[in-house]
């Protein structure tokens, strides 16, 4: 593993342990050249998953896009980065669990909305407004009414 400080290609593993979510291994390394320590993560390489967009295009699955959408929906709300990362991980796991090699973008959006509904109502409505392309106040109010009815 290349040292981030001196670019030496030789390092030794000092400590190795699974991450809290169990999806990767955290390794503490020490450079044999400069002696500085750094952390690396080892993760299983997943088989490729493609997202089928509404217009029929296909693109590689990218969990960073999901995270960006959730971050936008949760802006200035009491939602921690850990909660956001947990949602992204759950959605990613569900997407790969389909084992079809591809998944519709609508299905991913529904998964995110389901997670946000359980996390924060405002984040849910913000995400729904973009995802469902609310075009008028009536559509927006219908979604709010459904949310209120479910909470009662």
TrEMBL record:
Top-level taxon of origin: Bacteria
The name this protein goes by in its record: Transcriptional repressor NrdR
Organism for this UniProt entry: Aristaeella hokkaidonensis
Gene giving rise to this polypeptide: nrdR
């Amino acid at each position: 593993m290349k040292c981030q400080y001196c670019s030496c290609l030789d390092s030794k593993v000092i400590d190795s342990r699974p991450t809290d979510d169990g999806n990767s291994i955290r390794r503490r390394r020490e450079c044999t050249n400069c002696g500085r320590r750094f952390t690396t993560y080892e993760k299983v390489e997943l088989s490729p998953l493609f997202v089928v967009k509404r217009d029929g295009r296909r693109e590689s699955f990218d969990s960073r896009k999901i995270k960006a959408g959730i971050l936008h929906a949760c802006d200035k709300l009491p939602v921690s980065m850990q909660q956001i990362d947990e949602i992204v991980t759950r959605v990613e796991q569900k997407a790969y669990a389909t084992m079809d090699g591809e998944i519709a973008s609508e299905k991913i959006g529904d998964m995110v909305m389901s997670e946000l509904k359980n996390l924060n109502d405002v984040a849910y409505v913000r995400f729904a407004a973009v995802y469902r392309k609310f075009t008028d106040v009536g559509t927006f109010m219908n979604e709010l009414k459904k949310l209120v009815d479910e909470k009662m």
